[in-house]
Amino acid sequence: MTFSKKWIIAASAVLLCGAAHAEVSEVRITKQFGLGFLPLMVMEDQKLVEKQSKAAGLPEVKGVFMTLSNPAAMNDGLLSGQIDYGTNGPPAMITIWARTKGSGNEIKGVAGMVLTPMWLNVNNPAIKSIRDFTEKDKIAVTAVKVSIPAIIMQMAAMKEWGKDNYAKLDPLTVSMSHPDGMSAFLSKRDVTAHFTSPPFMYKELEQPGIHRIMSSDDVMGGPTTFSNLYSTSKFHDANPRVYKAVLAAFIEAIDLINKDKKQAAEIYLRISGDKKSTVAEIQKQIEDPNLVFTATPKNIQKYADFMFDVGSIKTKAASWKDVYFPEIHHLSGN
Predict the structure, then answer these.
(1) What is the mean pLDDT of residues 188-196?
(2) Average of pLDDT values for 79-101?
(3) At 201, is the pLDDT very low, low, confident or very high (cuts 50, 70, 90)?
(4) What is the pLDDT of residues 310-322, one digit of tens each?
(5) Which CATH architecture has domain 119-220?
(6) Whose CA is closest to 297, among 103, 93, 28?
């Protein structure tokens, strides 16, 4: 074999090896509706995935953002490989983590996103607490049984009526996106209560005849992670440099929100398409001390313990770190 032929074969092997280990050039990220997903809107608007991938010495990685409102659809998209990153509340994320733990495609959290209470608002003056709901009432939540509102109401029901009745309110819940739930709730079209998040919970209370009967913070005993960024072990392991670039972009987005709340409000309106709110209104909501953008997960263990205790999941989490990839294990989560 001549030198030139040997060189060509060797070069080809190197190229093939490089191709086999090439990381993705496009990252598909989903968000949901509302301020709880603002960091992803900032990432999209400011092209932070592209910026951080370039800073890491990678060929440009394009961030592709889409919006989904259903936690189950988010999980299906991750498992099927149609999306690379999902966003969900802790209960939905814990559910899919428990189902996939130990498999070849385990799903885990990438980072927390925001701490915020969710409010259970009602449009019937006779309803003063969850004890006043009847079979005639319908409570809008983002997803029955697995969303934050659904699990919070189970926790509240167990405290009120005992463990055997933790699911007492489940038959009253209906799945709706936050915007659809608010629309049905304010028009009093079948829905008498809405368990929702910013900015929807604020807007509802501005309307006459609407009052709040419960906050998720009341049940959880303090600030709690509302939304998470999460992904699959397949993506994490196959794309370590891209994964770190996306996480860096996410942290940069949170830093921007905390440093410049007016700019963050402008970005929210630009990306969300919200035509009914003003910059001042959204900025005021972002400045609410109860709304804290942080990558540190909070109260995850409490969710996981409850869900295991009532049988919603079959796998017990020894620590919040079981549910998240190691890149954030240095944070003071719980």
Answers:
(1) 92
(2) 94
(3) very high
(4) 999 999 999 999 9
(5) 3-Layer(aba) Sandwich (3.40)
(6) 93
Assigned fold of 25-116+224-328: D-Maltodextrin-Binding Protein; domain 2 (3.40.190)
